[in-house]
Amino acid sequence: LDSWKVPGLSIAVIDGNEVFAKGYGFAALPDKPATPETLWYAASTTKAQTAATLAHLIDSGKYPALANGWSTTISSIIHDDFVLQDSWATEHITLDDAISHRMGMAAHDKAYA
């Protein structure tokens, strides 16, 4: 942590039924320790993690639900939980559309104003 000037982090590794979770360093300077329960602002880092995970799952060929690769519709995987305002979009948006930000959704740019 010191060499990268990172004040703190939390990590969890799950292997079957075994879970390792630990906080290192500080959640807030100068003295609030990081713990496994610390909530971190992840921002856009999840986009790359999600894309990498999907690529791995698709390339593995082990998941019939992903047989159409990046052309798989999201509704075919999580139909009951994926509902957009537009029913056509709900049924036709693919993994590639979502990862590429081509869903036609509003940007919500004022969220940080």
TrEMBL record:
<dbReference type="InterPro" id="IPR012338">
    <property type="entry name" value="Beta-lactam/transpept-like"/>
</dbReference>
<protein>
    <submittedName>
        <fullName>Beta-lactamase/transpeptidase-like protein</fullName>
    </submittedName>
</protein>
<dbReference type="InterPro" id="IPR050491">
    <property type="entry name" value="AmpC-like"/>
</dbReference>
<dbReference type="Pfam" id="PF00144">
    <property type="entry name" value="Beta-lactamase"/>
</dbReference>
<comment type="similarity">
    <text>Belongs to the peptidase S12 family.</text>
</comment>
<dbReference type="InterPro" id="IPR001466">
    <property type="entry name" value="Beta-lactam-related"/>
</dbReference>
<feature type="domain" description="Beta-lactamase-related">
    <location>
        <begin position="5"/>
        <end position="108"/>
    </location>
</feature>
